Amino acid sequence: NSDEGCQDSTHVRVNRRVRYEVTVTTALVDMAEHSERLASVSMNGFELGECNPSPEDDFDCGYSDCFEGELLPAEATSSGTVELKVHSVRTSADCHCNRLMGFCYSAMDAAFGEAAGG
Q: What pLDDT score does 13 carry?
């Protein structure tokens, strides 16, 4: 990833009559340097801000909460769909993540395992 970074988004269906509190958690994928971060996290244009956790090293594949209990304004959910949009800067694929199982592991460990036949 570069200084310009990359963006990703996903859509989530919500009940438009319900108020939502949002918690955003990120995998600590290559975020050891201050310049490696989520430059922007937004939901339907409602900007939550930047997330810049400080893991021990680039291969720390744990998780960090960026935002906890953020109340979304009613207009952010009024359409019945919320778009979560993330802009990451200077991160790379130092971890492999299994979203279904909810864990990440070091790409370096994965390469050693594959080389060893595991």
A: 96
